[in-house]
Amino acid sequence: MDLDHLLHLLIPSWTSVAILALFFTYLAIAGSLLPGKLVPGATLPDGSRLHYRCNGLLSLLWLVGLLGVGAKMDIVSLTAISDRGLELLSTTFLFSVLVTMVLYAAGCKSTNRGSSLKPHVTGNLLEDWWFGIQLNPQFMGIDLKEILFCRFFFVRAGMMGWLFINLSVLARSVQDGTLSQSMILFQLFCALYILDYFVHEEYMTSTWDIIAERLGFMLGWWLLSNKVEIGTVAVVANCLTFLIGYLVFRGANKQKHVFKKNPKAPIWGKPCRVIGGKLLASGYWGIARHCNYLGDLLLALSFSLPCGISSPVPYFYPIYLLILLIWRERRDEARCAEKYREIWAEYCRLVPWRILPYVY
């Protein structure tokens, strides 16, 4: 593929804009109207509290149903995303830049001093734009966090988008007759991970969640463009990596969520150990201070392993995630040290490992 052709494929079209707009419109409507469990979030410094409507699974199932009916009636093409992958990528990037610029501008004009809307401006334009300056931003009088973020709007967009990108690539693979065992394994791991997220969406309300770009498109496209066959041993190893990663990731997040709701709830059949009445030091949280990150990294690795080891390209995501999580872990450590002080120091002495026991 020459450079001119690649640049041409990256040019956004009105079709890609329409696809993205319809997707976000559906998420906003479904998130607002569909029933779901209302889960209270953490109490903010000013005493306010957000409530999260956990209806992501229902929103996903409805969208799958609507797209299935649309495909049956020849209104929707199952390969639309894979056919327009690069232009959708550039359209999404431009949309993201536009949204963050609007939020930055709106935040700078805010005079509200509450925890949600108080601007936190460092003076570094790039840093403020990148991290954001408001906890729960408003735009034109609409509380975006209450309407959208509180319902995991952008998380849902990423998770659902990841699934539909994969399914579109799978449809293309089936149409082209290139479906392989590696493609099936990759699709299965990703689908299970995404569905599990929506089934346990409530658990995310109690975490300082990591929002990592899910580069399912890159990996799926790699398998579509490169025929990869792996042996039985590799399949078993991939499955074990996914299973261990899932158990650690889901188990750690569940333990913290349960602890925050009921600090006296037993963990692994034993009374939980608590430092200073605030920090959980039992279960996975007694093994490493960020054990959930280890699970996430193993899951990311399991998504790439079906691509084999012939090229480093498919491993961009786990490498990227490793860098991102170490950076986030360092910021989280600094935040906790400032917030909990001597309690955090005691926890660090009790649990010396940050992510991977005996290594880091």
Description:
The chain has two domains: 1-221, no CATH class; 230-359, no CATH class. 60% of the residues lie in helices and 6% in strands. The chain has 14 helices and six strands. Strand 1 and strand 2 (49-54) form a beta hairpin. Helix 12 (291-304) packs antiparallel against helix 13 (316-340). The radius of gyration is 22 Å and the shape is globular. The model is unreliable at 139-151 and 210-220 (pLDDT under 50).
Question: How is the secondary structure organized here?
Answer:
Layout: H1 3-10, H2 14-33, E1 37-43, E2 49-54, H3 56-72, H4 80-83, H5 85-108, H6 125-131, E3 138-139, E4 142-143, H7 144-147, H8 153-176, H9 181-199, H10 216-225, H11 232-261, E5 274-275, E6 279-280, H12 291-304, H13 316-340, H14 342-350
Antiparallel strand pairs: 1-2, 3-4, 5-6
